[in-house]
Amino acid sequence: MVSAYEEVCIWEKTEAVQTLQKCGLGKGMIAMDLGCGLAHYTIPAAITVGSEGKVIAVDHDKKINKTTYNRLMDAGITNVEIVCANHLELNHIPDSSVDFLMIYDMIHTNPRIEVYPVIKRLLKKGGI
Question: Which InterPro entries does the entry link to (predicted)?
Answer without folding.
Answer: SAM-dependent_MTases_sf
